[in-house]
Specification:
This protein has 734 residues and is α/β, with parallel strands linked by helices. It is built from 28 helices and 20 strands. The chain is globular and about 75 Å long.
């Protein structure tokens, strides 16, 4: 889509060092530049304009790096004995990538150049890098602008050019940013060009150091949107990965599992740069030794390092601090506390006019209204000396919100992240309880999204073959690993080795949805044809849905030892043969469930950035456990893991929410009143309670008991037809 006026204005400021004037000619220029197809194309226009070239004649921004190990990285040229010669053009991240390439291949010589985008054009055009580029087997760049300049200035280089992503991520350090003067000069301080937005804001607004320190607190972070930066950064990295064909969701899941993977907003840790190097080597089929990042020197750690503030760390299950690392005179790190950092920042800012510090972030609503917010928060300087629980709302207290409330009136939802519009495509997946949600959404007139609807079949055949039970005919997805694998299968990224199972009656079934067609299939080819059509519909669903309601059901599963495929049922229950040499029982840990669910959320964003996810936990207990313990203990463990993970993901990602259907059905306020005599199946009254609360908060409907008489009869009749709810798990005990 065309670029915005703000993008054009900032390009003038950053690339030409000035603002657009109000003359008629420059207004026309603004209009013309706004027609550029995207921001990289806009940058290319600036590279080619005469004003840009005349302003950037020096080559001061080109820096050749001295060695971080035995091989020199200079413009003198490559080691003639090297079997693989690689040049890199971009920012400081490339040196770590080059370091990892050399260390993992043992026969490569890498020359890294820190290249400022503003200055590369002339230096390339005058042939300064001719020999380097001519000798390079691969030329690695980070920016489309550099790619285009090299390819145009050095004919024949196109086939050797390769992209690697720029890793910029402020989710851990949302307060870390550049600050400029009113003349758009970057301000340098005790941490180089890194500044604290809150420190700059406090100084701009005449706050004292002590008053500015009071801004570093939870409610301020929330108000100015710091907690939203994690998801925004993840989305940005996913977009960057897509542009250069890097599997960013998988890489990010790995990095996130190791805590904060950034030293600052643009300095990744060495294991991140090593993974970028490995992916380059893999994509180009270059032999290398993997997993050597533990032995590499992390040179960016020698630079300035920004802390993960404690409140930000708590949101992401990390350890945090307010200690900043300076660059010292020796190898010993120099750490400074928050108060010292803010005081030193103020001293540095005092040479400027009060109120003149600028950041684009200051234009955001959170900062624009921060002064008013602070004035309203009279207790901003600390918690009241009175009982901290005094004044909390009723939902914070058991007696007020549960023990004295009529069962059907209990509403454990306080706030939801987003609303569900009737026009939005709502898809469902997960355990059998998700089917109740699907049925009720459809009956309430919502756009229940069913790409795989069996439209050419009769109504009786559609029902018999389980069309519409979920959005696609994948059956029950009990575990998060199943969900991730379904996504990868639909995108053509994973194909399980086990294709079909044969039943005792000679019919064939799909191992990954063995009960989706009760009649089974008469041939292997029929199974594969049905699966191909099914996965095409699943891909369409993921790419086009607006909201996915996913119900987490189990942690116990069965796995293929050949490729890690996860089945909804153990082999032998509804087809196939249990073979201990190729199948095993698997009970996923809380970390594994969390990693898989987080990976799915990132993958979904990569193909559908607008998608939102509502997580629920199934209140239906396990029908059996394969662990050597009582099924009650296994059920409690499983639900505790799933509930914990669902809460963590909803806290971490703004596009993800948790809905407490589990608590409504199983909470102490109801005893077993919402369960059938088997203590597993949910009564119609329970489903009605769940959906009444769901629709109240997500759809703005005050109670589903409108039109109660006829509708409630229809709802009860639909739910009491318990056979309409397909639970693969029940086949275990049949």
């Amino acid at each position: 889509m065309p670029v915005s006026q703000d993008a054009v204005k900032w390009s003038f400021r950053l690339l030409l060092g000035r603002d657009i004037t109000g003359t008629q000619d420059e207004k026309k220029i603004l209009e013309a530049f706004c027609k550029t197809k995207d921001e990289p194309a806009l940058v290319e226009l600036f590279y080619k304009c005469n004003e840009f070239r005349s302003r950037n004649k020096s080559s001061n921004y080109i820096q050749c790096l001295e060695p971080h190990h035995v091989k020199k990285r200079t413009k003198d040229g490559f080691d003639p004995k090297a079997k693989l010669k690689i040049s890199l053009f971009g920012n400081c991240q490339l040196d770590g990538i080059g370091y990892a390439i050399e260390a993992s291949t043992n026969n490569a010589h890498v020359i890294s150049f820190h290249v400022g985008l503003i200055n590369i054009l002339q230096n390339l055009e005058n042939g300064e890098f001719f020999e380097i580029i001519h000798q390079s087997d691969y030329i690695i760049v980070q920016h489309r602008g550099i790619y285009n300049i090299i390819s145009s200035c050095y004919p024949g280089s196109e086939g050797r050019l390769r992209y690697v992503p720029v890793i910029a991520f402020n989710g851990f350090h949302p307060d870390n940013d550049d600050v400029w003067t009113k003349n758009r000069d970057r301000i340098a301080g005790i941490l180089g060009h890194y500044n604290s937005l809150l420190a700059a804001y406090g100084w701009n607004h005449g706050l004292s150091v002590s008053s500015t320190l009071e801004l570093f607190r939870d409610e301020v972070f929330d108000h100015i949107g710091y907690y939203d930066c994690m998801e925004a950064s993840c989305k940005n990295l996913i977009r960057v990965g897509l542009e250069v064909d890097y599997p960013m969701p998988e890489l990010m899941k790995k990095w996130l599992s190791q805590g904060s993977f950034m030293h600052s907003i643009n300095h990744p840790k060495i294991f991140v740069l090593a993974d970028i190097a490995y992916e380059f080597l893999r994509k180009n089929r270059i032999d290398h030794v993997p997993h050597i990042e533990s032995y590499l020197k992390d040179r960016l750690a020698d630079s300035v390092c920004w802390p993960v503030y404690p409140h930000i760390a708590n949101k992401n299950n990390l350890n945090g601090s307010y200690y900043f690392k300076k660059v010292g005179q020796t190898d010993m790190p120099v750490m400074i506390a928050l108060e010292e950092f803010v005081s030193a920042s103020f001293e540095n800012y005092n040479k400027y006019d009060k109120g003149s510090l600028f950041s684009p972030r200051f234009q955001e609503e959170g900062f624009q209204t921060l002064d008013e917010f602070i004035k309203k928060k009279k207790n901003i300087t600390g918690i009241s000396k009175n009982n901290p629980y005094s004044g909390l709302p009723s939902h914070c207290f058991w007696k007020r919100s549960l023990s004295t409330i009529e069962t059907k009136s209990v509403d454990p939802v306080v706030v939801v992240r987003f609303k569900v519009g009737k026009e939005e495509r709502v898809a469902t997946a997960g355990s059998c309880f998700a089917q109740h949600i699907a049925k009720r959404l459809s009956s309430e007139g919502f756009n229940y999204y069913v790409p795989e609807d069996g439209g050419s079949l009769s109504e009786s055949d559609r029902k018999e073959q389980n069309y519409g039970v979920f959005s696609c005919r994948y059956g029950n997805l009990y575990t998060t690993r199943q969900l991730v694998q379904l996504f990868d299968r639909s995108m053509g990224r994973f194909t399980p080795k086990e294709k079909v199972w044969q039943r005792a009656d000679g019919r064939y079934v799909d191992p990954f949805r063995p009960q989706i067609d009760p009649a089974g299939f008469d041939s292997v080819e029929a199974v594969e044809k049905s699966r191909s059509e099914h996965l095409g519909c699943v891909r369409e669903m993921f790419e086009k849905l607006d909201i996915l309601v996913f119900t987490l059901g189990l942690t116990e599963s069965w796995e293929s030892l050949e490729d890690g495929s996860i089945y909804p049922l153990a082999p032998g229950v509804a087809g196939g043969v249990m073979d201990p040499s190729t199948h095993r029982f698997r009970n996923f840990t809380a970390k594994e469930v969390a990693d898989d669910l987080e990976l799915f959320l990132l993958k979904l964003q990569s193909v559908n950035p607008k998608a939102r996810v509502i997580l629920t936990v199934s209140p239906v207990p396990l029908i059996a456990t394969y662990e050597n313990r009582h099924v009650l203990v296994s059920n409690t463990h499983s639900k505790a893991v799933l509930r914990t993970v669902a809460g963590e993901m909803a806290t971490r990602y703004e596009h993800c929410d948790y809905f407490p259907s589990y608590e409504i059905i199983t909470g102490q306020h109801v005893g077993n009143g919402y369960l059938q005599d088997d203590l597993r199946s949910v009564r119609p009254e329970g489903v009605d309670h769940v959906m009444r609360v769901f629709l109240k908060h997500y759809a703005g409907k005050e109670g589903v008991k409108h039109q109660e008489s006829q509708r409630e009869k229809e709802q009860k009749a639909a739910i009491e037809r318990i056979n309409d709810v397909i639970c693969d798990e029940e086949a275990i005990d049949s």
